[in-house]
Known about the structure:
By secondary structure, the chain is α+β, with helices and mostly antiparallel strands. The protein is built from 10 helices and 9 strands. It has helices spanning 2-15, 48-60, 95-104, 108-118, 120-129, 141-151, 162-165, 181-192, 199-209, 270-288, and strands at residues 18-26, 32-35, 41-42, 69-72, 91-94, 178-179, 228-236, 239-247, 253-262. The protein has a 5-stranded antiparallel β-sheet with strand order 2-1-9-8-7, sandwiched between helices. A two-stranded antiparallel ribbon has the order 3-6. A two-stranded antiparallel sheet has the order 4-5. Helix 2 crosses helix 4 (108-118) and helix 2 runs antiparallel to helix 9. It is globular, with a radius of gyration of 18 Å.
Amino acid sequence: MTAAARTRITSAFTDAGVTGQLHATDIDTGTTITIGADLETPTASVHKLCVIAALYRQAAHGHIDLRHPVDIPAEGRSPGATGLATMRDAARLSLRDLAGLAVAVSDNTAADLLIDAIGLDTVNRTMADLGLTRTIAVHTMRELYATLREDADGTPAALTDPTVVTRLRALDPTRTNRSTAREIAALLAAIWRDELCTGEYAQELRTILGLQTWSHRLAAGFPFDDVRVSGKTGSLPTLRHEAGVVEYPDGGRYAIAVFTRAAATTVTLPAADAAIGKAARIAVDALRT
């Protein structure tokens, strides 16, 4: 069954015009299905999972107050198409509400304010403490987008030019935030097993990770009212990722990370988005059989 599932997942990627890596694990039994799960890959906004995980671990250890208010000037916000970057006025939000925005609408400004509060070193140290030694952040979202601007010579339209795409540092796992499908799925499993933090902190963290509004990737594979999908997307030119946890009403819990890279440089590629949900569903069905 597992071999057949891997074949079907690979076919789903091929049919969508992408290459893909997948790691799916039954959180309670440890049974896994993997495809290229140890290939280091640029994480894009999936790395916000690591930032928020580090934030909540710091809070659980008493090093930071999640209710601490952060003043957010109208100027100087990190670039992005959602959240605070699109707002015109100064604001004040707590750290935990910034975490909610970073997940719900992948708010780059919110994520960077969290990084400012705890530091990239803390994010990386938290991953190392969990044994996730290949999950490394090297820059903020602000800095990541600066590399895109520089590498595209300040011309956003150039990010769909295949020649430009080949030189983007943001797509080079040796020069940007990176991880593997195995390690990101392991991080999610640790959160759901209360290994990152416990009690109210763990519960609140899981609640925040269930706030994401995007339903066109991972969640598309599980169109059921009684199945809960918590996750975080990540997108860059040619890259479409999502990692999350699927919870069934019978108690089954499955951590999944799916990373894809498309041959096409077009911004809109519905088949690639759909392949993430299809691959995840195949993997979970196989784990449940």
